[in-house]
Amino acid sequence: MKHTTVLIGNFGSGKSELAINMALSSVKSGKKTVVVDIDLINPYFRISERKSLLEENGIKLIYPRYAMTGVEATSIPPEVYSVFIDDHETVIFDAGGDPTGAIALGQYRANFAELSRLDVFYIINGRRPLSSEVDQNIALLDKIQSSARLSITGLVNNTNLAHETGIFDLLFGYDLISHISEQTDIPIAMTMGTAPILDELSKYIENGTLDQRYIGKLYPIKRYMHRDWDTFTHLGI
Would 59 disulfide with which of 6, 54, 182, 185, CB 3.0-4.6 Å? Predict the structure, then answer.
């Protein structure tokens, strides 16, 4: 059965990071997987930068025309419509990070409505500008839902500072996302992070310090979108 996941969130929230990890996990489990990049707003830190990584692992990538070419005017290819009816078992949408970018999702409202398995996740990185306060996140979340014409089904805590991330960053995100969940009635789908950080978080869970309702599934990831010397020398970005 086809399972479609839409990832939405502010710039730098970690949508592309989660999309890559979910796609790699899916294809490793033997599922035919496609990732759809429909971010027409942000020309940087987009999943199209990892096209080779995805395709080498047997993952199809659909992305805006002219993306990664230096041409500013991008457009969504008609091929996107095919993912709603083809034989891909896992479909992951990496959407724009603001209300304007989320508009691209709105044109597929009727297609999404016909899906039997659809998750729409809003990813939050509490260490990013405009994402560190409860009210800021709720206001942006509401605007994105309206623009995308989709209802958020789950929240994702991805509070981090890249390679400088510590357990207290994730705990800050826990406190932030718990308040957002309480005020919006949207459940927490998952808490994502690198394995060492999630191992530390597990200790807080085991001693009863944290409420499992505001953690969701622990989802360990490898960071592919970071900028470091190895990434630069191998990928040139």
Answer: 54
Token duo for residue 131: 């994402």
* Residues of the domain holding 119: 3-235
Residue 47, pLDDT score: 80
DSSP string, 115-168: -SSEEEEEEE-TTSTT-SSHHHHHHHHHHHHHHHT----EEEE---BTBT--HH
Residue 86 belongs to domain with CATH number: 3.40.50.300
Residue whose entry in the numeric block shows the structure tokens 């592309």: 16
60-62 and 33-37 beta bridge pairing: parallel
3-state secondary structure of 83: helix
Rounded Cα distance between 123 and 121, Å, is 6
Q: State the alpha helices, DSSP H only, in the chain.
A: 15-28, 51-56, 99-106, 109-113, 134-148, 167-184, 195-206, 229-235
**Count of alpha carbons within 13 angstroms of residue 212, beta-carbon side:** 6
Task: Please name every residue paired with 92 in a beta bridge, in sequence order, or none if there are none.
Answer: 5, 35
Tally of structural domains, the chain: 1
C-alpha–C-alpha distance, residues 123 and 141, integer Å: 10
Task: Give the pLDDT confidence of 85-114 residue by residue, as tens digits.
Answer: 999 999 999 987 777 778 889 999 999 999
Compute φ and ψ for 193, nearest 5 degrees: 170, 175
Rounded CA gap, 219 and 4, in Å?
18
